[in-house]
Amino acid sequence: EYDGDRNAEGERHGFGKARLPNGDTYEGEYEHGLRSGRGTYRFKSGALYTGSYLQNRKHGKGIFFYPDGSKYAGDWVNDQRQGQGEYTYANGDTYTGEWFNHMRHGQGTYIYKDTGSKYVGHWVNGIQEGPAELIHLNHRFQGRFFNGKPLGRGKYVFDFGCEQHGEYVQLEQVK
């Protein structure tokens, strides 16, 4: 079902409301039959996206509310989280920073809600990797991460003024 503006060729063009065969709905702008411009897409699953579209794909600024209670607000490119954005996870953790191809990638800050700890550093394809600082309640670790774990030279800095310098080595453990 569609209720809205059309162009001379009869295509959806301008503002309109649509109910799709799968039960999803869209209300917003169209251009030559495709969602383009600002709009709100409600998924039958309970998810909701409100933001910019380009040729039926999320593109530009937008907010996506997921059925599990998580939320992403930020940049989209070709239906993927890409650019700057903030993701609030269902457990209350948050990530604010760079995204590429739907993954945390580049510089970002991840805050663990339960402990208040904070990872401030680099990400590669969704994994903590590169120079970073892991900040806890009364101390912090400064060093490099590889594959989500500290590796190589680094230091702990404690709030009472002490530092502990050392090197992280990944050991294979026998299970």
TrEMBL record:
Keywords: Cell projection, Cilium, Cytoplasm, Cytoskeleton, Flagellum, Meiosis, Repeat. One of its GO terms (cellular component) is motile cilium. Residues 1-29 are annotated as: Disordered. It is found in: Cytoplasm, Cytoskeleton, Flagellum axoneme. InterPro entries: MORN. Functions as part of axonemal radial spoke complexes that play an important part in the motility of sperm and cilia. This is Radial spoke head 1 homolog. The lineage of its organism: Eukaryota, Metazoa, Chordata, Craniata, Vertebrata. The gene is Rsph1.
